[in-house]
Write a structure and sequence with these properties.
The complex is a heterotrimer. Chain A contains three helices and no strands. By secondary structure, chain A is mostly helical. A two-stranded antiparallel sheet of chain B has the order 1-2. A two-stranded antiparallel sheet of chain B has the order 3-4. About 2% of the residues of chain B have low confidence.
Chain lengths: 105, 649, 493
Amino acid sequence: MMNSVPLEHILFVSTALFFIGMYGLFTRRNLITILMSIELILNSVNINFVAFNKYLYPAKLDGVFFAIFIITIAAAEAAVAIAIIINLYRSHQSIDVEDAAELKF
Amino acid sequence: MSNYLYIILIFLLPLATFLLLGLFGRKYFKTSAGFIGTLSLLTSTVLSLKAAYQYFFIDGKVDGVYQKIEAIKFTWLQFSPGISIDMGIIIDPISVMMILVVSFVSLMVHLFSLGYMKGEERFATYYAFLSLFTFSMLGLVLSTNIFQLYIFWELVGVSSFLLIGFYYQKASAVAASKKAFIVTRFADLGFLIGILILGFYGGTLDIGTLIQRLTSAQSAEYIGITTASFLGISCLTWGLVLIFIGGAGKSAMFPLHIWLPDAMEGPTPVSALIHAATMVVAGVYLVARLFPIYSIEESALHIVMYIGAFSALLAAIIACTQTDIKRVLAYSTMSQIGYMMFALGVSQNGVENNLGFTASMFHLFTHAFFKSLLFLGAGAVIHMVHSNEMKDMGGLRKWMPVTHFAFLIACLAIAGIPPFAGFFSKEEILLAAYHADKMIYGVALFTAALTAFYMFRLYFSIFWNAPVQTESHDNAHHHHHSEGTMTMKLPLIILTICAMAAGFIPFSKFITLSGTPTESHMDITFSIAPVLLAILGIAVAMKLYKNANDIPSRIASSMGGFYTAAKGKFYVDKVYLFVTKKIVFNLIGRPAAWIDKNIVDGLINFIASLTAWISSLIKGIQSGRVQNYALYFFGGVAGLSLIFIYWWK
Amino acid sequence: MFLSLLIILPFLTSIAILFCRGLKQVRSVAFLGALSQIGLVGYVLAKYWEERSVGNNAPMLFEYNHTWFAPLNINFHIGIDGISIAMMLLTAFVVIAGVLVSWTMEKLSKEFFFLLMFLSVGAYGFFISLDLFTLFFFLEVAVIPKFLLIGIWGSGKKEYSAMKLALMLMAGSALVFVGLAGLYFYAHSFDMMQIAQMAIPLEVQKFFFPFAFVGFGIFGALFPFHTWVPDGHSSAPTAASMFLAGISMKLGGYGCLRVATFLMPAAAHQYSWIIILLATIAIIYGAFATMMQTDLKYINAYSSVSHCGFVLLGIGMLTKTSVNGAVLQMVSHGLMTALFFAAIGMIYSRTHTRDVAKLGGLLKVTPFISTVFVLAGLCSLGLPGLSGFVAEMTVFMGSWQNPNTMYRLATILACASIVVTAVYILRAAGKTVMGPMSEAYNEITDATWNERLAAGILIIAIVVMGVAPFLLNQLIMPGTENIMNKVLSITGN
C-alpha cells in the first residue's frame, strides 16, 4: 500500500498542472479560459496539500482541510468571476481581456 | 507756563472739516462747503493769532529768552525702549510764526477760492483737500518728534498730490501730480534714512532731546555718531545730508526741483497756498528746526549753502525765459527758497547770533505774503483771460485795477524795493551772506537783480504792453468777465497790506536761534547796492516789455545756446525722463518682469513638465492589461522567492 | 476651552450653509456666520485684555489640551497670545468683507460660501494651535478650498492657476511637514511650548530649519517660490483673492515666525543673512516687476510679493522691533490688499476689464469705488494715517537696529522700494481712476450697499490701525517679546 505511487510522481503531476494553468493564464485572452486556468492552478495546489498530508503527516488532517477550504473559495471565486465576466460582456459585448483595457495610464 | 491746549484746535479744526466735507460733502454741502471750510479756517487763524500774541507778548519769554514749550505729548507708536513716535505740539518762536503764516495764507486762499472755484463740480472735494492740506501743514510745523514731522511731511505730500491732480481728467494734471509725488517721495527716502541714522545713534526721535544729545561734544551719542562712519564720512554728516535731501525735495532745490513748475497744473489758489507760501518752505523749516545740529556740522551746512545759492541763481535764470506766468512764479518761488536755504547755510559762520537763521525765517515770513499775493493775482488774471500764456495777455491794467495794484506791490516787494516787505528780509540775508562768504554774496546780489528783472517782465507783459488779440475778440473776452467777486478781491487787498507792512516787524526781536531777542541793524550804505541793482533790473524790464517791441527776441537770439538751454530748463527734465523711462523702466522694470515670467516662473513650470515627462516615460507599465499585471505579480513573487532562498538564508 | 468655538463656529456655519436653499438663504447664513466670528474674536480680545490687566503674564492664555492620538503624543492643544488675536481679527474682517463682496454670487452659491467658511475654519485653527500636528492639520484644511475656489469660480486660465497654486502650496506643506517631523523626532513631542523649552542641538536645527522656513515661506511668497501669487490671485474670484492675500499668505508669515524662528532660533540666526537676502530681492524685484504689469490684479499680486517681503525681512532681521513690524505688516497687508482686491473686483464687475490701458477716468462715474481704490493704493504706498505706514516704518526702524552694515544696506534698499511703490501705485491710479474716461463707461453705476459696507469695514480697520497704532502694538508686543527673548537668549545679542 505505501509503495504504490511515490510522492515525486504526484508532485510532478501537480507541478505540470500548475504550469499548464500558468500558461493558460498568460496566453489565453478569453476570460472563461483564464478562469479555467486559475482553477487548474488552485487544483494543483490542492493536490499538493493532499499529497503532503498523506505522505508526511498521515496522522493529521490539516492538509485535507485546507484542500476543502480552497475548493470552497474556488467555488465562490468562480461565482464572482463569472458575474464579473457577464457584466463585462454586457458592457463591452466581449469577454476578451484585451478589450477591457480602460484602466491604462 | 500758561495753557496752550487750545492750539490743538488750530489744526484739528481743519481735520474735522476735511472729514465732514470728505465724507458728506458731495451730498449735503455741495455749495456750502466753501463757507464751512472758510469759517473753520477763520477760527483757526484767530486762534493762531491769539497763540502768537500770548507767546510773543505775554508768557513766552522767561528771563528774556523765548522758551520751547511742549503743550501736549503722548506716545503714538513705541518702537523700542527710548525710541518711539510721540505725537506732540511744540511751541517755540518759529513754530508759532509758522502756524500764523500757514493759517493766514490758507484763510486767504480759502476766501479767494470761493469765487475762483465757484461752480466747480467737485467744489466740496476741493475744500476737503484744502482742509486736509492745512491740517497736515499745521501738524508739520507743530511737531515735536522727527518722525511725527515725517508723518505730516508725507501727508502734505499727498494733499499736494491730490490738489495738483484736482482736474483729474486732464492728462497733464495727472502726470504733474504723479511727478510731484514721486520726486518728493524719492527725496523723502533720504529723509527717512536720515531719521533712521539720527534716531539710531541719538537713541531718541524727539527733536529736543536729539538736539541736546548731538550738540554736546561729551555725550555718548555724539561720540557714537561722529566715530561711526560709512565710506569715510561720519554718520552725523550722512544723517544731516540725507535729511537735507528730504528738505530739498519738498522745497524744490536743485536737482529735485523738477516737480514744482509742473505742479502749476493745479488750481491757481492751490499753487498760492502749497507751492508758494507753505509746503515748499517745509524744507527750510526742517533745516531750521534741526539747525542746532547742522550748525555744528560744517560740511552739511556747506551743502545747504551751495545747493541753496545755486538753486536761487538757476531758477532766476530760467524764470527770465518762461512764458507761462505760473511757471515764472514757480521758478521765482524756487529762487526765493534758495535764498532762504543759503541764508541758513551761511548762518553758521555768520555774524553775531546767527543772523542768517533769523534772516531766513524773516524771508520765509515775508515771502509767504507777497508770493501768495502774486499767485492769487495771477489766479485772478487767469480767471479772466483763461490762459496761462503771457502772449494772451497785455494791457490788463484797465480791466482789473485792484489786481494790477496788488500785483505791482507784490512785484516791488519781491524785487526788494524799500519799504516793501521783501526789502527788509532780503537785506538781512545779503548782510549775512556778505559776512560769511563773498562768493555767495555775489551770487545773491546778481540773483536779486535778475529777480527784479523777471518779475517786472511778468508785470509789464500782463498789465502793460499792447494786447495781442484782435479788438473784437478782446472785447468779448473782457466784457464777460469782471475782475472777480468780492471774495476774490478781498484776499488780494489784505495780502497787499501785508506785503507793504510785514517788513516793518522787528523780526529779530522775536525769532533768533538762541531765543534771545536782538536788535536788527539796518545799514543804509549796505542797502545801496542791492536796491540800485533791483532798480536797474526793473528799468531794463520796463524798456523791454512795457511796450511791444522786438528787442527781447533779438536779445534772445543773440544769447543763442544759452537762451535755448535756459528756456528748456537746462534739460534737467530731459535727464530725469531719460533715467526713468529709459533706465528704470527698460533696464530694471522690464527685465524684472521678464525674469519673473520666464526664469523664476519658468523654473517652476519646468519642474512641473519634468515630472510630466518622467511619468510619461514610465506610464507604459500601466498597460491596462490584466495579464501583464499578473505577469509582474508572478515575476515579483518569483523574484522575492529567489531572494529569500539564496540571499536571505 | 471656549477657544474651540473659534473653530466650531465657522464649521457649523459651513455645515448650515449646506442645508440652505437659494442664494438669499445661503448668503444671509454666511453673513451671520461672519458677523458672529467678529463678535467671537472681539470677545476673545476682551477676555485677553481682562486676563492681562489682572496681571496674568503667561505667554499663552486660555490654553486647552486634549489628547488626540496618545501613541504619537499628538494633542489638540490650543491657546492664544496677542499675535494670534491680531491674526484672527484680520481673518474676521477679511471674512466678512469677502462674504459681502460675493453677495451676488449666482453660480453654485451654496458651494462657494461653504468653501469660504471652510477656509476660515482652517485659518482660525491654524492661528490658535499650539501643537505642531494640529497646526499642520489646519494648514492643510486651509489649502484645499482654495483649489476649488479658483478652479470653479475663477476667470482666465483658472485651471492652470488653481493647479499651480495647489501644487506649490502642497509642496510647501510637504516641506513644513519634514521640518515638523524633524522636530518631533528630536523632541518626541508636537507641543510647541514644550519644544520651546528644549535646547535642540544646532546641527538638528540647521538641518530642519530650512524645511520649515521655506515651507511656510512658500505660503508667504518667499522669493523665488512666489510665482503662485500672481497667477493664483489673478485667476481667483474676488472673495477668494481677498482670502488668499489677506489670510493665506499670512499663514506663511505666522508659521515662519511662530514655528521656524521660535522653535529653531539658533538656525534662524545662522541663516538670517539668506532670509534677508531673499526678502530684499523679493521687495525690490517684486516692486519693479509690478511696475511693468498692466492687469490690475497682477499689479496687486506683485505688490503683495513686494509687501510680504517686508514680513520676511522683519523676521530675518531678528530684532524685537523688526519682528513686531513683521506682525504689523502682516495685519496691515492683509487688510489693505483685501481692500485693493475688493476695489478691483468692483471695477471688473462693471467694466469687464482689468487692463489699465482700457480703463480711465472712473472717478467721474464711480466716485466711491475710485476713492476706495485710491485709498487702498495710498495705504500700499505707506501714507501716514493708514496702516501700511505704521507697519513699514516699524520694520525699517527695527531692521536698522541690526548693526550689521550689509543688513543696513538691505534696509536702505527696502526703504527705496517705497519710492518704486509710489511709482506703480500712482501709475495704476492715474490710468484707472484719473485721466480721460472712455465713453463706454458712461452707464456704469457706483457701488451697491453691500460693496460699500465691505469696503467700509476694511477702511475703518485700516484707518484705526493707522491712526491709533498703539492699540495693535500693545496687543502684539508681549507676544513678539516672548518669541524674541527666546531667540536673543540663544544668539546672545
